[in-house]
Write a structure and sequence with these properties.
The chain has 273 residues and is of the alpha/beta class. It has a single domain, classed as sialyltransferase cstii, chain A (Alpha-Beta Complex). The chain is 32% helix and 10% strand. The longest helix has 18 residues.
């Protein structure tokens, strides 16, 4: 039994090494060719990136597209598509919503329970970045890439049972990005009381943290929520309302909104919505 566990751990480590994209390299080896071409067409860029450590990286303008209902009827699609890097998250669709959210996707951050499984959403120019929250997530990736039977045990809802993306399109997010978001930005405790469910950063805020590590300019769209109206649209797609977000015990949306306001007020980011 110990040998089996050891083999699994070593296999997971090798897979991590193969799929993991190093976020701090100065080249574009894991960016789609279109993103590199668009970068060369830039005329201007901020004098300073959001963080001083990015001064050595060629100018890169990024937009992080949230799934908020505020995107509805904003016709920001063409504006969003003009950026060098477009970061989306989870299963926020593009098809059918192009006028409001654009067509292009550079990176899509997801976890097993939120990744697309319908081939209609396949995009050959998208790099999928898997956020690993638990060991079971790595096991899921190992099974799904190996064509093995997927067990839904250990997930908070049914994970994807088939992979629509090629293995060359998949990366594993460096856990330090999630750690920075939770502990340094939101100041979550490392341990929660037994009676309280642990809080996790939303995929959106993790995506913003990623953007700060690879972009000179970071713009946001779709991150505003209307807490005063429980019946307002939660997403730009579907029929879910804010009442469902308010019942979520795994995120601290109030803390995240306050943090985003600080970023906007200090001009670290530009909010398109």
């Amino acid at each position: 039994m110990k040998r089996i566990i050891l083999v699994f751990i070593l296999a997971a480590a090798v897979m991590y090494g193969i799929l993991h994209g190093n976020l701090w390299r100065n080249n574009f080896y894991w960016l789609p060719p279109t993103a590199v071409e668009r970068r060369n067409a830039l005329d201007t860029c901020l004098l300073k990136p959001a963080f001083e450590s990015l001064l050595g990286i060629p100018c890169r303008r990024c937009v992080v597209v949230g799934n908020g209902g505020v995107l509805r009827n904003k016709t920001l699609g063409e504006k969003i598509d003009s950026y060098d890097v477009i970061i989306r998250m989870n299963n926020g669709p593009v098809i059918g919503y192009e006028e409001d959210v654009g067509r292009r996707t550079t990176f899509r951050l997801s976890y097993p329970e939120s990744i697309f499984s319908d081939p209609i959403h396949y995009d050959p120019n998208t790099t999928v970045v898997l956020i690993v929250f638990k060991p079971r997530d790595l096991k899921w990736l190992w099974e799904i890439l190996g064509g093995q039977k997927i067990s839904a045990k250990g997930f908070w809802k049914k994970p994807a049972l088939n992979m629509i993306y090629k293995s060359s399109q998949i990366r594993i997010l460096d856990p330090s990005i999630t750690r920075k978001t939770a502990y340094e930005w939101l100041h979550f405790p490392t341990r929660f009381p037994k009676k309280e469910k642990p809080k996790h950063p939303t995929t959106g805020l993790i995506a913003i943290t990623l953007a700060f590590h690879i972009c000179h300019e970071v713009h946001l769209a779709g991150f505003k929520y209307d807490f005063t109206d429980r019946n307002s649209s939660l997403h730009y797609y579907g029929n879910e309302t804010m009442s469902q977000m308010m019942q979520n015990e795994y995120h601290n949306i109030t803390a995240e909104q306050k943090f985003l306001k600080k970023l906007i007020d200090k001009n670290f980011v530009v909010n398109l919505t």
